[in-house]
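S.,

Sequence below, as promised.
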Amino acid sequence: MIIALTGSLPELDQTEVLRAVTEARADRGIPLRDLDQHLADHPQALVSGDAHCPAVIVRLAQVLHTAGHTAVIRPACTDCGRSHVGLPRFGPNGRLCINCSARSGKGTCRRCGRTATRLAARRAEGPICYSCYRTDPDVVEECATCGQLRMPVTRRPDNSPLCTSCWSGPQHTCVICGAIGPAKSHGSDGPLCAPCHHQQRRPVRECGLCGQERRIARRATGARPDICEDCYNGPTTVCSACRESRSCQRGPDGAWTCRSCRPGLNQECCRCRRTRRVHTRWPIGPVCSTCYTVVLDAPAICPGCGRHQPLIGIAEDGTRICGACAGTAFDYTCRTCGLGGRTYADSECARCVLIARLQQLLAGPDGRIPAQLQPLRDALALAERPRGILLWLKRSPNAALFASLAASGEPITHQRLDQLPPSRHLHYVRHTLVHLGVLPERDEELDRIPAWLDTVLAGRPAGHVQMVRPYAHWYLLRRARRRAAQRRRPAEPGSFLRTRVLLALEFLAWLDEHGIALDELRQEDLDRWLDAGNTRTYAIRYFLSWTTSHGLTSRLKVPSIPRQQPSHLMDEDGRWQLLKRCLTDESMALDTRAAGALILLFGLHASHVRHLTTTQLTRRDGNSYLTLDQHPILLPPRLAKLLHQLAEAPHTRAGLTRTNRGEPWLFPGLVPGRPTSQTGLSSKLLPHGIDTRPARNAALVALAGDLPAPVLASILGLHTNTAVRWAGFAKTSWADYVAARAADLQRERNTTPQK
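The prediction came back faster than expected:
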């Protein structure tokens, strides 16, 4: 090295060379190796000004140039051309200054394939990142202590290398936090550890997320505001462990991991005594994440100060006290309401944050919540679990639809909602507003048909539209509304009406395809269409009945589907075993046990079970009764206990279902004010071996064998003809019962004194 330096710069003597090398920090370790190797390959490196060189050449050239050796040409930044600044990074064309490297120092590593990563050096295949540089064969050496091949970070006096795991630098006491370890920097007051050093260097500005004046952890760019230390959790990327897109940090191996998957310190929790990852350390000791949440969600009166706070400390006599009384800086007090407990964001409890976000979400153009949405705001603000409502506001499309309705500034009516595209989110919003009394009650199953009909008829031939629209409005809907007003239980005719409308459109399209006019339709043409279809196509009789009554077609006949006997029956032993399990197995969900027991014992249809209310369940003289139709049924003790538990259990559904408005459903659904769906109820029973149709058929056969048809119809709400058919299927004759009943009535008339 000395020979190469004096060869290119004859005016240098050995003493000046050693002084310059020492001042350029090139007298030991990796810099000395890089200097020696580069001068051996490029003897004129100091006088050529070539920027394709190690950083030690740049430092040495600047030292020699400052010492007055004008023959030395300092390498310049290949982007901005400045030569009086440090060149710490490599660029595509050579070394770069710190400003230029910040703009172009990222690229694709040609060894591992990472994109948009910082590049550390160039090799034959191209630039490589820092992770690959640390494992590069030209860089790693055998550590003198552990013997592993790693990049050396320092060398012993005998020039033997040490890796980062085996080297322990000078130990200092941080003047801010008191931690003992290597000093990242030395401030005016003394040494600083790495966390305190970085924290002191961060500027204090307004955070673009929370709006508070705090230290900025992530500085603003063109597309992102400043983010403070509390709001920043790391870049959002795919976690290498769970494969979820979350806020992650990069580990020593270069892999990105989220907080849940990141390996941490496992220690015995002072509360639950399980060895788990330490979430935080309180005066009572280390606690896991589960106990952290439990303690903060259960504040109590502190014996020391009398405040309602989480008890995270311990007094000298062993009693639990709050953090302030324990002399720590832990403060879990909401800065808005002053209550103690787990804070949600910006030192506020979840309920205070919820109230503020509801104001933002439901605000109209004037910044105030419309009067129509005030009941919604009150119901959500009083929810038992505000954190769940906050998550709902953030992620649910239903909440976004509420926000758009509020932002429009228009009055919310059924007609206004009918103008929006039909969706399950619109269905939820409408029922919520009806449940809260904002909109009047209406038969939603039927009133949704006109909007659906407009969507279906869009783009259809004009002749088909002129035919199907009056058929749907004046025949199907009119008939359905009349029947709905006479039914004792709510019905769901919407699917049947849609099927009949779609069948009419399919039939008209088939006629056009075969060149047949509707008024020229013959019986053989109709039979040909029916033969090509299935049992669904027989519902065309409703459309042809309407066209015949209006003189549009001749009288045609659609064969009726023969009534079939029940073919799916559950065996009696299996039914009683499932019924016993529903009454005794506490591992099953409470609503699943109750619904299964009602179907297996009384043969109720799933649509009947879902519409049961708590008012139909009564107690009298120590017994429990369930009114299914006209007469209350005496319940067995176990089933009665099960139904009362279900009626008194707190609902685990959405917070809006807990309001007192609407029917007190025994099986409430996810939509406020509505019972659970028939499909959802059946899908809950099926995993437990309860298929609703075979179970109901078996129960009705057993009841029809024990009860007369009139009695069965009156207690279960069946039509008399239906009860008679079940009795016939059970092959039971009740002529003796009818005769005995007639004799009883005659005897009562004979014994009644004449007035």
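The CA atoms of residues 242 and 260 lie 9 Å apart.

Coffee later?
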